Amino acid sequence: MTTKYAAQLVCALSVTLGFGAQARAQEQAQAQAEGPAQAEEQELVQARATEVSVCTDLGAVTIELHDEESPLHTANFLEYIDQGYYSGTVFHRVIEGFMVQGGGFDRQLDRKPVLAPVINESGNGLGNVRGTVAAARTNDPNSAAAQFFINLVDNDQLDASVGSPGYTVFGRVTEGMEIVDTIGALPTSGVGPFASDVPEPLVAVTSMARLDREVMASLPEDARTITIRERIGEALDAGNRIDVLEWIGHYRATCAVMDPDLLFIEASAAAALLRTARAQWALDEYLTLASETHEDYRMALELYAAVAPDAEPAITRMIGECDPPARPEIPDGSIADRDAMIAGRDDVQEFIGAGDMYLACLSDIIDGEDLSDEDHSLAVREHNRMVTVMEQLAEDFNDQLRAYRDRE
């Protein structure tokens, strides 16, 4: 493996890594020398190591974090996980025989915003061996943020050396390395902002959550997800939003599919608890999956505007050049006078005209050749939503017009 790859690592994957074989052997020898009491204490510490369930389009991967050896990086990684940040991110960079990298870009290869960077901890004694998870960064050793990479082979050129910081390892893959290998073997090319190394197809993280094996063991194996959804419902009925989010986290850890209903519940509970980042990322997922006819769609848009006033949902980013008209207020025909009804009619006609222009703009996007399947689906759904809004507005105005005429 050449050292050019080390310079190319822009951001690294944060996962819980175990020690390499040599490190484990040294630890076991030390435990034996110190006696059974300390060996037992070490086993308890290892048993409490934080585990993370990484759900992807291809299957599940389990990561064990090095909480003690890389405390800053594991805390940073868990902060992103608890926010729901990684859902919908992709493995955007793959180099066969080297590593797979992800955690910073969505399915459209748009960069996601990040938290403050983390201080380098590459001197923690953990090496970049196969299956370990490390933090990606720029040439600045203290620039690691959300992105991470998983080593496909032993990459000791990425380790720290005298006077030269390396790439901080903070976890290891304990289950599902075959999924990582599959991603690492995908064909690659230049796509979007990247000149090379983008896999085809893109593989996304569908969920990432803390894995609590005690909780999982307490649930019936053949009805685990059903039971968790029942617990979510019970917490929701009791108004206990903290428990709602906790059980949704357990649900995500099973890698079960997150449907629009559950995503809206998660976003609403997070917003009520002022966990705005989690609410925003859940709403991003919701607006990607939900049809405009879903009963909570309009409330989801309103909630998004409340928790992330400076951000835009995926559909808005994708159709940025099109200008959706604002739906006008309809006069109440049971009390409005003639002038108010005429003004209302004019507003509706203006809205329909602007709506036709918006639909024409969307049609141009839908007919575009460079549109991904997901963006095409989003644009079609937005087109259909707008048609429904226009038809409903006309129907609502006619209802009020009949009410007005009934008074004459």
Q: What is the topology, as strand order, of the major beta sheet?
A: 3-4-6-5-7-2-1-10
Number of alpha- plus pi-helical segments: 14
Q: What is the assembly state of the chains in this entry?
A: single chain
**What is the percent of helical residues?**
40-55%
| Major beta sheet summary | 8 strands, antiparallel
The count of strands amounts to 10
CA gyration radius, whole angstroms: 26 Å
How much beta, percentage-wise? 5-15%
Which geometry do the CA atoms define?
elongated
**Architecture (CATH level 2) name of the largest domain:** Beta Barrel
Short précis:
The chain has three domains: 4-207, Beta Barrel (Cyclophilin); 213-318; 338-407. The protein has 14 helices and ten strands. It starts with a helix and ends with a helix.
Protein described:
The protein has 408 residues and is an alpha+beta fold. The chain has 3 domains: 4-207, Cyclophilin-like (Cyclophilin, Beta Barrel), CATH 2.40.100; 213-318; 338-407. Helices cover 47% and strands 13% of the residues. Strands 3-4-6-5-7-2-1-10 form an 8-stranded antiparallel β-sheet. A two-stranded antiparallel sheet has the order 8-9. Helix 10 (276-289) runs antiparallel to helix 11. Residues 1-47 have low confidence and may be disordered.
